[in-house]
Amino acid sequence: MRHDHLITSKQLSRGDIETVLDYAAELDADPSTVADRHAGTLLGLLFFEPSTRTKMSFETAMKRLGGDVVDMGSIESSSVKKGETLADTVRVIEGYTDALVLRHPKQGAATMASEFVDVPLVNAGDGAGHHPTQTMLDLYTIRENAGLDDLTIGIMGDLKYGRTVHSLAYALTNFDTRQHFISPESLQLPREVVYDLHQRQDGTGIREHDSLEEVLPSLDVLYVTRIQRERFPDENEYQKVAGEYQIDADTLEAASDELTVMHPLPRVDEIAPEIDETDYAAYFQQAHNGVPVRMALLDLLLSDDKRIGGDDDE
Ligand code: ASP
Fold first, then answer.
1. Which residues of the sequence carry a binding annotation for L-aspartate (predicted)?
2. How many domains does the chain contain in total?
3. Which entry of 49, 132, 293, 308 is 20 to 30 Å from 265 by CA?
């Protein structure tokens, strides 16, 4: 069976991931082969939360495939302001477009919305839930820099609310990886995610820590995340953890010379700018990879000869 919608990385098998990454690499090398492939195709952008990279790279990707986008714009200027439900909004916009990209502050919003539409719907972030297309570009960047098998990765910061972390952690269980999760106790991975990760991968591949120090020398990749201030029910709780887990050149003295430092961006103060010009930094490359990866995903979702296999019922 093939995927009609892309909601979580749990849907994706190793074969699916490799198909997308291999195709993205082809498009990265020569995007001209698909310049007119989706001429006349319209992608609907529904962003109920701020976005820079995700939205602009989807738009760039669709245009590089020969298509165009229709953007709902800010919620302030849309009918959402008048109280329209998400189910109604997506049903209306699917009538104008060939596929939808949805970002929403509520976890589960993409799953719900996908039940109301027939065109492919891509989850571009649902609250603290998932962000599967970010994961694909993260995997692409990891593969370019460190390889995806026999990988030791540290994932650090806000593991509770960070949707990019959840999606990446699930996807990595398809590969031979050791995942170290580093966070303050209050921002640990949700217990159900830990449970799922153990079910999907031999438990020895998953470890939780409160300090980077003990694992840093063993890491191939360090994936740093922002504390998701907007998701804290209580600002005081945010203030207690703000500014923890920052890295700078001194921190990385204990790291391997081969370490790759990643971040889904935007960063606040987690990575000192002095790291930007070092060989460790891969976060801008990671953001650039969003275009070929989203081109590959859109083409696969929009084409009749879809090449992403697997169950689509998760
Ligand atoms: N841009 C990512 C997201 O939308 C990461 C972040 O906002 O911290 O989840």
1. 82, 163, 226
2. 2
3. 308
- Joined together, the tokens standing for residue 276 give 């930007």
227 and 152: one domain?
yes
Q: Answer yes or no: do 22 and 152 share one domain.
A: no
Annotation says 54 is catalytic = yes
* Helix, strand, or coil (residue 154): strand
Distance CA 110, CA 246 (A): 32
Would you say 265 is a known binding-site residue? yes
Domain of 165: which CATH number? Answer: 3.40.50.1370
Same domain, residue pair 163 and 278: yes
* Confidence class for position 75, pLDDT limits 50, 70, 90: confident
Report whether residue 135 contacts ligand 1, using a CB cutoff of 6 Å.
no
pLDDT at 307: 57
Q: Is the CB of 264 under 6 A from ligand 1?
A: yes
SS3 content of the chain, % helix, strand, coil (to 5): 45, 15, 40
Q: Specify the pLDDT at position 61.
A: 98
- Active-site pick, 3, 38, 103, 178: 103
Q: Would 273 be classed as within a structural domain?
A: yes
Do 169 and 241 have their domain in common? yes
The CB of 163 under 6 Å from ligand 1? The reply is yes
Give me the residue label for tokens 């477009």.
97
314 in Cβ contact with 7 (< 8 Å): yes
* 313 contacts 110 by C-beta, under 8 angstroms: no
User: What is the domain range of residue 84?
Assistant: 9-130+288-302
Residues 142 and 216 in one domain: yes
Q: What does pTM read for this prediction? A: 0.95
For ligand 1, say whether the CB of 226 is within 6 Å of any of its atoms.
Answer: yes
User: Atom 8 in ligand 1: which residue has the minimum CA distance?
Assistant: 226
Helix (H, G, I), strand (E, B) or coil at 304: coil
